[in-house]
Amino acid sequence: xxxxxxxxxxxxxxxxxxxxxxxLPGNYYFSEQIxxxxxxxxxxxxxxxxxxxxxxxxxxxxxxxxxxxQPMFVIRDNHxxxxxxxxxxxxxxxxxxxxxxxxxRVRCPYHGWNFxxxxxxxxxxxxxxxxxxxxxxxxxxxxxxxxxxxxxxxHPESQGESLVSYLAGFSDYLNQYKHSWxxxxxxxxxxxxxxxxxxxxxxxxxxxxxxxxVHAQSLKCFDPKNIxxxxxxxxxxxxxxxxxxxxxxxxxxxxxxxxxxxYQGFIFPNMMxxxxxxxxxVFKLTPxxxxxxxxxxxxxxxxxxxxxxxxxxxxxxxxxxxxxxxDFRVVRSLQASVHSQAYGVLQLADIEYGISHFHQVxxxxxxx
Length: 368
Known about the structure:
CATH superfamily of the largest domain: Naphthalene 1,2-dioxygenase Alpha Subunit, Chain A, domain 1
Order of helices and strands: EEHEEEEEEEEEEHHEHHEEEEEEHHH
Number of helices: 8
CATH topology of the largest domain: Naphthalene 1,2-dioxygenase Alpha Subunit, Chain A, domain 1
Strand content: 25-35%
CATH class of the largest domain: Alpha Beta
Low-confidence stretches: 1-18
CATH architecture of the largest domain: Alpha-Beta Complex
Number of strands: 19
Structural class: alpha+beta
């Protein structure tokens, strides 16, 4: 197979103007071939957030999810354990479950093959039509599921690195937040489909250089000059201090305390976490095509936060979407430029190191 990732511009590219370029070349943001390769080497080989454990309280409770290009579901079995399986019937490949709910059996809607919560075949119509089939050898393909802070993480492969190892201490950083992650309850969820490659929103998130320009008014609650960045394994911690101004106590998007802190960060490949005094926001990205990305927003509060800071959906969304749309406009502009022969990154500032770290992590997956 041709090595499409040996391009020297992963490290450095010299254009016709003899200006050295760093970062990824433009085609990494629109190539169908590279997108397909990323699905195999990144999205099928990483842990990804799919929901909250509290959503699956009882045996038979399930949720379906898309892990990269892999349709999967998570279900609670009769022993109280979560199981995750590929949402594909082994008979003819039909989708087994849709949405979220509760079921007595995992039943294929096409021919009626049904499986227990552990994925073992328990029944099929007209079994006499399959004289050579050993039912005990038929099962749904499994992945792995683990929990951190009440968040459900799924890995499409059945064997490999544990979630604790994968997070590489990132959870210790988030545990500095004074509210319990396990007690968070979802109070809002919405999504966008943005006309951009999935890597651009992440790169934008990983640097604060743009804050004083793009978010000059909307995020003036933060002190960008004193943000502390810490790479942690594949991930990136972003310790964001609030200013000493009193108005941060009433900021509509990021409520805080003067000189307080917001624990933010990126969990590779697609989860972003942001804390405030009154709530936690989580972003989840799902690549839909080389130039289209689903961007989901989840808002969580503990019971104590709900009581002290009742969630006002219209007021909060108006301001939060203002911040997001400021970023989306930048991301769309970047996507519009990648076909230009002049496209490239001339140099990254030290406060843009998160992008360099992200590219370094990607380069390990891009190796053939």
